[in-house]
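Lab notebook, bench 4. The sequencing result for the construct came back, and we need a structural model before the next group meeting so we can plan mutations. Quick request posted to the team channel:

Model the 3D structure of this chain.
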Amino acid sequence: MIHGGLPATLGMSLVVTLVSPAAGQDPAELLFGMEAAYAHVEGYTARFVRREVVEGTLRPREEALLKFQKPGLIYLRWVAGPPAGREILFVPGQNDDRMLVRETGLLTSLATIVMAPDSPRVLEESRHPVTDIGLGRLIGLIAANARRAAAAGELSIRDLGMVAGPDGSGPGIEAILPRQPDKGYYCYRLVLVVDAASGLPVRATVYDWDDRMVADYAYRDLRLNPPLTSKDFDPANPGYGFPRWKIVR
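Done. Here's the predicted structure in token form:
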């Protein structure tokens, strides 16, 4: 998903279609600028909102408080949707690279569940493993698909101007890839809202090869480089509810 004004590392052979460029703003620069903008981010907090189609069914909207710190520490507490009250903590290298899960309910809340971030239980409710949550994974996925499509001359990007985002308006970008699933791209169409101040994507809406919305992700109240500490990723944090008794699944 890319074009004109591309980073030098992409080479001169890329062929991309640029549709209706916005005045003073190259959508390709916005798209690839996200990588450079994220390079300066060590951590962030946000209200992560998602709605996905899983196994052909559109799931209810979910919202979770998110803390993230490089190189991949994640804390989530759901505040809306069916998992409301659930907590997840993942710290790379701990618990054999498995995550800690605290569920609500009379019996399920008695123990911390230890499971893989990509376990079948997770993928029953989500299109991605828990470790795919976050701006870095989103940006990396977009950039990888965009570079590949641009190199093949199969990318079209359209500047949508200023559009409504999670916390106000921001520049909108639409990236269109080949409408052929066998080419191996992530999606057919992707609509992004970029935060004008940070240059980071705060909303991404994904469409499949039948042009049906299959995923919508947003980052509300995004705070970059807040003073996160080890306590924010410690299950013993008194603000969290992880029981000491653990069940490994």
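DSSP finds three helices and 14 strands in the chain.
Will bring this to the meeting.
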